[in-house]
Amino acid sequence: MNKLTTVSVAGGDTRNRYTAERLEELGFSVSLFGFDSFGDGLPTPRADTLAQALRCGAAVLPLPCTRNGKTLNAPFAAKEIPLKAVTELADENTVIFAGMIPEGFARELAAKGARVFDYYKDEALTVQNALLTAEGVLGIVIEKTPVTVWRMDAAVTGYGRIGHFLCRALHALGARVTVYARNPVQRAKAEAAGLSAEPLDLLPEQTHRYDVIVNTVPAPVLGEDAVCNARKDCLLIETASAPCGIDADACKRHGRELVKAFSQPGKTAPKTAGILIADTVCGMAKEANLWSHST
Q: What range defines the domain where residue 276 resides?
Protein backbone atom coordinates (compact mmCIF):
# COMPACT_ATOMS: atom_id res chain seq x y z
CA MET A 1 0.00 0.00 0.00
CA ASN A 2 1.32 3.46 -0.86
CA LYS A 3 2.65 5.46 2.08
CA LEU A 4 3.15 8.52 -0.09
CA THR A 5 -0.04 9.56 -1.89
CA THR A 6 0.06 13.35 -2.22
CA VAL A 7 2.81 15.36 -3.90
CA SER A 8 3.34 18.99 -4.80
CA VAL A 9 5.50 20.24 -7.65
CA ALA A 10 6.84 23.60 -6.51
CA GLY A 11 8.68 25.86 -8.93
CA GLY A 12 10.52 24.92 -12.08
CA ASP A 13 10.12 25.36 -15.81
CA THR A 14 8.00 23.65 -18.45
CA ARG A 15 9.46 20.22 -17.75
CA ASN A 16 8.04 20.33 -14.21
CA ARG A 17 4.54 20.63 -15.62
CA TYR A 18 5.19 17.24 -17.23
CA THR A 19 6.68 15.97 -13.97
CA ALA A 20 3.32 16.69 -12.36
CA GLU A 21 1.46 15.01 -15.21
CA ARG A 22 3.59 11.87 -14.92
CA LEU A 23 3.13 11.72 -11.14
CA GLU A 24 -0.63 11.90 -11.66
CA GLU A 25 -0.39 9.01 -14.11
CA LEU A 26 1.36 7.02 -11.39
CA GLY A 27 -1.56 7.56 -9.04
CA PHE A 28 -0.49 10.53 -6.93
CA SER A 29 -2.72 13.40 -5.95
CA VAL A 30 -0.65 16.33 -7.25
CA SER A 31 -0.76 20.10 -6.79
CA LEU A 32 1.34 22.83 -8.41
CA PHE A 33 2.88 25.88 -6.78
CA GLY A 34 4.80 28.69 -8.48
CA PHE A 35 3.15 28.38 -11.91
CA ASP A 36 1.12 31.62 -11.75
CA SER A 37 2.09 32.92 -15.20
CA PHE A 38 2.17 29.56 -16.94
CA GLY A 39 -1.25 30.19 -18.46
CA ASP A 40 -4.30 28.04 -18.91
CA GLY A 41 -4.33 24.38 -19.78
CA LEU A 42 -3.00 23.06 -16.46
CA PRO A 43 -5.46 20.43 -15.25
CA THR A 44 -3.42 19.91 -12.10
CA PRO A 45 -4.81 21.89 -9.12
CA ARG A 46 -2.62 24.63 -7.69
CA ALA A 47 -1.55 25.08 -4.08
CA ASP A 48 -2.44 28.52 -2.74
CA THR A 49 0.64 28.97 -0.56
CA LEU A 50 4.15 27.65 -0.15
CA ALA A 51 3.14 26.23 3.23
CA GLN A 52 0.37 24.25 1.57
CA ALA A 53 2.79 22.91 -1.02
CA LEU A 54 5.31 21.80 1.62
CA ARG A 55 2.65 20.10 3.74
CA CYS A 56 1.88 17.56 1.04
CA GLY A 57 3.33 14.10 1.44
CA ALA A 58 6.36 15.31 -0.52
CA ALA A 59 7.41 18.39 -2.45
CA VAL A 60 9.27 18.07 -5.75
CA LEU A 61 11.46 21.11 -6.38
CA PRO A 62 13.14 21.99 -9.70
CA LEU A 63 16.37 21.14 -11.46
CA PRO A 64 18.42 23.10 -10.69
CA CYS A 65 16.82 23.84 -7.34
CA THR A 66 18.14 27.40 -7.45
CA ARG A 67 20.08 29.50 -9.92
CA ASN A 68 21.28 32.21 -7.55
CA GLY A 69 21.59 30.43 -4.20
CA LYS A 70 18.88 32.61 -2.70
CA THR A 71 15.55 31.86 -4.40
CA LEU A 72 13.83 28.81 -5.79
CA ASN A 73 14.19 28.37 -9.54
CA ALA A 74 10.61 29.33 -10.39
CA PRO A 75 10.38 31.34 -13.64
CA PHE A 76 6.56 31.14 -13.74
CA ALA A 77 6.00 32.31 -10.15
CA ALA A 78 4.32 35.67 -9.58
CA LYS A 79 7.01 36.58 -7.07
CA GLU A 80 10.31 35.18 -5.90
CA ILE A 81 10.28 32.21 -3.53
CA PRO A 82 13.19 32.59 -1.09
CA LEU A 83 14.99 29.41 -0.04
CA LYS A 84 14.83 30.84 3.46
CA ALA A 85 11.04 30.67 3.33
CA VAL A 86 11.27 26.97 2.48
CA THR A 87 13.57 26.23 5.42
CA GLU A 88 11.43 28.26 7.82
CA LEU A 89 8.36 26.18 6.93
CA ALA A 90 10.15 22.83 6.99
CA ASP A 91 9.76 20.42 9.89
CA GLU A 92 10.11 16.71 10.63
CA ASN A 93 7.12 15.94 8.42
CA THR A 94 8.64 17.61 5.35
CA VAL A 95 9.92 15.48 2.48
CA ILE A 96 11.70 17.27 -0.35
CA PHE A 97 13.02 16.01 -3.66
CA ALA A 98 15.10 18.53 -5.64
CA GLY A 99 17.87 18.65 -8.22
CA MET A 100 21.35 20.04 -7.57
CA ILE A 101 20.54 21.11 -4.02
CA PRO A 102 23.09 23.55 -2.54
CA GLU A 103 24.85 21.96 0.42
CA GLY A 104 23.97 24.82 2.77
CA PHE A 105 20.28 24.64 1.86
CA ALA A 106 20.25 20.86 2.36
CA ARG A 107 21.92 21.22 5.78
CA GLU A 108 19.40 23.83 6.90
CA LEU A 109 16.49 21.63 5.86
CA ALA A 110 18.01 18.60 7.59
CA ALA A 111 18.48 20.68 10.76
CA LYS A 112 14.73 21.28 10.77
CA GLY A 113 14.15 17.54 10.59
CA ALA A 114 13.18 17.43 6.92
CA ARG A 115 14.07 14.46 4.72
CA VAL A 116 15.90 15.71 1.65
CA PHE A 117 16.69 13.80 -1.56
CA ASP A 118 18.76 15.17 -4.45
CA TYR A 119 17.39 13.37 -7.50
CA TYR A 120 20.17 14.71 -9.71
CA LYS A 121 22.59 12.47 -7.83
CA ASP A 122 20.92 9.55 -9.56
CA GLU A 123 23.48 8.39 -12.13
CA ALA A 124 20.89 7.26 -14.67
CA LEU A 125 19.16 10.65 -14.63
CA THR A 126 22.41 12.60 -15.08
CA VAL A 127 23.31 10.46 -18.11
CA GLN A 128 19.83 10.84 -19.62
CA ASN A 129 19.86 14.58 -18.95
CA ALA A 130 23.23 14.89 -20.68
CA LEU A 131 21.84 13.11 -23.74
CA LEU A 132 18.89 15.50 -23.90
CA THR A 133 21.24 18.47 -23.48
CA ALA A 134 23.46 17.26 -26.32
CA GLU A 135 20.43 16.85 -28.56
CA GLY A 136 19.34 20.41 -27.78
CA VAL A 137 22.80 21.78 -28.55
CA LEU A 138 22.85 19.88 -31.84
CA GLY A 139 19.59 21.62 -32.73
CA ILE A 140 21.21 25.00 -32.05
CA VAL A 141 24.15 24.10 -34.27
CA ILE A 142 21.83 23.15 -37.13
CA GLU A 143 19.64 26.22 -36.70
CA LYS A 144 22.28 28.89 -36.14
CA THR A 145 25.03 28.01 -38.63
CA PRO A 146 24.98 28.73 -42.39
CA VAL A 147 26.78 25.48 -43.21
CA THR A 148 25.83 21.83 -42.95
CA VAL A 149 26.97 19.66 -40.09
CA TRP A 150 28.45 17.44 -42.79
CA ARG A 151 32.05 18.62 -43.27
CA MET A 152 31.68 21.21 -40.50
CA ASP A 153 34.76 21.87 -38.38
CA ALA A 154 33.67 21.68 -34.76
CA ALA A 155 35.55 21.96 -31.48
CA VAL A 156 34.17 20.69 -28.19
CA THR A 157 35.85 21.45 -24.87
CA GLY A 158 35.64 18.58 -22.41
CA TYR A 159 34.64 14.99 -23.00
CA GLY A 160 32.34 14.28 -20.10
CA ARG A 161 28.75 13.13 -20.48
CA ILE A 162 27.51 16.06 -22.57
CA GLY A 163 30.70 16.27 -24.60
CA HIS A 164 30.60 12.55 -25.35
CA PHE A 165 27.01 12.54 -26.60
CA LEU A 166 27.42 15.77 -28.56
CA CYS A 167 30.63 14.65 -30.27
CA ARG A 168 29.07 11.34 -31.19
CA ALA A 169 26.07 13.08 -32.78
CA LEU A 170 28.19 15.61 -34.70
CA HIS A 171 30.57 12.90 -35.89
CA ALA A 172 27.69 10.69 -37.03
CA LEU A 173 26.42 13.54 -39.22
CA GLY A 174 29.82 14.01 -40.87
CA ALA A 175 31.38 16.82 -38.86
CA ARG A 176 35.12 16.98 -38.33
CA VAL A 177 35.22 17.05 -34.54
CA THR A 178 38.15 17.91 -32.31
CA VAL A 179 37.95 17.43 -28.56
CA TYR A 180 40.01 19.74 -26.35
CA ALA A 181 40.55 18.38 -22.86
CA ARG A 182 43.07 18.70 -20.04
CA ASN A 183 42.63 15.09 -19.01
CA PRO A 184 44.70 12.72 -21.17
CA VAL A 185 42.23 9.91 -20.43
CA GLN A 186 39.41 11.98 -21.95
CA ARG A 187 41.57 12.66 -25.00
CA ALA A 188 42.34 8.96 -25.34
CA LYS A 189 38.65 8.08 -25.15
CA ALA A 190 37.85 10.69 -27.80
CA GLU A 191 40.52 9.32 -30.14
CA ALA A 192 39.25 5.77 -29.54
CA ALA A 193 35.85 6.99 -30.73
CA GLY A 194 37.35 8.21 -34.00
CA LEU A 195 37.67 11.88 -33.04
CA SER A 196 40.65 14.19 -33.03
CA ALA A 197 41.86 15.32 -29.62
CA GLU A 198 44.15 18.07 -28.37
CA PRO A 199 45.25 19.46 -24.99
CA LEU A 200 42.91 22.21 -23.85
CA ASP A 201 45.65 24.82 -23.59
CA LEU A 202 46.18 24.68 -27.37
CA LEU A 203 42.66 25.84 -28.19
CA PRO A 204 43.16 29.65 -27.87
CA GLU A 205 45.63 29.63 -30.78
CA GLN A 206 43.46 27.29 -32.86
CA THR A 207 39.97 28.79 -32.56
CA HIS A 208 40.25 30.23 -36.07
CA ARG A 209 39.92 26.71 -37.47
CA TYR A 210 36.32 26.17 -36.42
CA ASP A 211 32.79 26.85 -37.60
CA VAL A 212 31.43 25.98 -34.15
CA ILE A 213 33.00 25.82 -30.70
CA VAL A 214 31.00 24.28 -27.85
CA ASN A 215 32.14 24.57 -24.26
CA THR A 216 31.09 21.95 -21.71
CA VAL A 217 33.70 22.80 -19.05
CA PRO A 218 32.46 24.74 -15.97
CA ALA A 219 35.65 26.81 -15.73
CA PRO A 220 37.12 29.69 -17.77
CA VAL A 221 38.69 28.17 -20.90
CA LEU A 222 37.98 30.63 -23.74
CA GLY A 223 39.19 34.07 -22.80
CA GLU A 224 39.91 37.26 -24.71
CA ASP A 225 42.63 35.87 -26.97
CA ALA A 226 40.68 32.75 -27.88
CA VAL A 227 37.52 34.70 -28.70
CA CYS A 228 39.43 37.31 -30.71
CA ASN A 229 41.20 34.58 -32.68
CA ALA A 230 37.90 32.91 -33.64
CA ARG A 231 36.49 33.63 -37.09
CA LYS A 232 33.79 36.29 -37.38
CA ASP A 233 31.25 33.67 -38.46
CA CYS A 234 32.19 31.15 -35.76
CA LEU A 235 29.29 30.18 -33.49
CA LEU A 236 30.21 29.86 -29.82
CA ILE A 237 27.92 27.81 -27.60
CA GLU A 238 28.08 27.74 -23.81
CA THR A 239 26.58 24.74 -22.01
CA ALA A 240 28.45 24.92 -18.70
CA SER A 241 27.02 26.44 -15.56
CA ALA A 242 28.71 29.26 -13.64
CA PRO A 243 31.46 30.30 -13.77
CA CYS A 244 31.02 29.23 -17.42
CA GLY A 245 33.88 28.72 -19.83
CA ILE A 246 33.46 31.35 -22.57
CA ASP A 247 34.13 35.03 -21.87
CA ALA A 248 30.75 36.57 -22.77
CA ASP A 249 32.07 40.14 -22.53
CA ALA A 250 34.89 39.32 -24.94
CA CYS A 251 32.31 37.95 -27.39
CA LYS A 252 30.45 41.26 -27.25
CA ARG A 253 33.62 43.29 -27.70
CA HIS A 254 34.76 41.30 -30.72
CA GLY A 255 31.38 40.73 -32.33
CA ARG A 256 31.31 36.95 -31.93
CA GLU A 257 27.95 35.20 -31.61
CA LEU A 258 27.53 33.43 -28.28
CA VAL A 259 24.55 31.22 -27.50
CA LYS A 260 24.00 30.37 -23.85
CA ALA A 261 22.51 26.90 -24.05
CA PHE A 262 21.48 26.47 -20.43
CA SER A 263 18.77 24.02 -19.27
CA GLN A 264 18.37 22.59 -22.76
CA PRO A 265 16.10 19.70 -21.72
CA GLY A 266 13.64 22.22 -20.30
CA LYS A 267 13.55 24.06 -23.61
CA THR A 268 13.83 21.40 -26.29
CA ALA A 269 12.54 18.23 -24.63
CA PRO A 270 10.50 19.31 -21.59
CA LYS A 271 8.11 16.37 -21.68
CA THR A 272 10.83 13.74 -21.79
CA ALA A 273 12.85 15.59 -19.14
CA GLY A 274 9.84 15.98 -16.87
CA ILE A 275 8.93 12.30 -17.12
CA LEU A 276 12.51 11.31 -16.30
CA ILE A 277 12.46 13.51 -13.18
CA ALA A 278 9.15 12.00 -12.01
CA ASP A 279 10.33 8.44 -12.57
CA THR A 280 13.58 9.14 -10.73
CA VAL A 281 11.73 10.68 -7.78
CA CYS A 282 9.51 7.61 -7.60
CA GLY A 283 12.51 5.31 -7.69
CA MET A 284 14.16 7.20 -4.83
CA ALA A 285 10.90 7.16 -2.85
CA LYS A 286 10.72 3.39 -3.23
CA GLU A 287 14.30 2.96 -2.06
CA ALA A 288 13.55 5.12 0.99
CA ASN A 289 10.48 3.00 1.74
CA LEU A 290 8.23 6.03 1.26
CA TRP A 291 6.27 4.57 -1.62
CA SER A 292 5.52 1.17 -3.04
CA HIS A 293 3.80 0.83 -6.37
CA SER A 294 3.93 -1.27 -9.49
CA THR A 295 2.71 -0.20 -12.93
A: 6-121+269-287
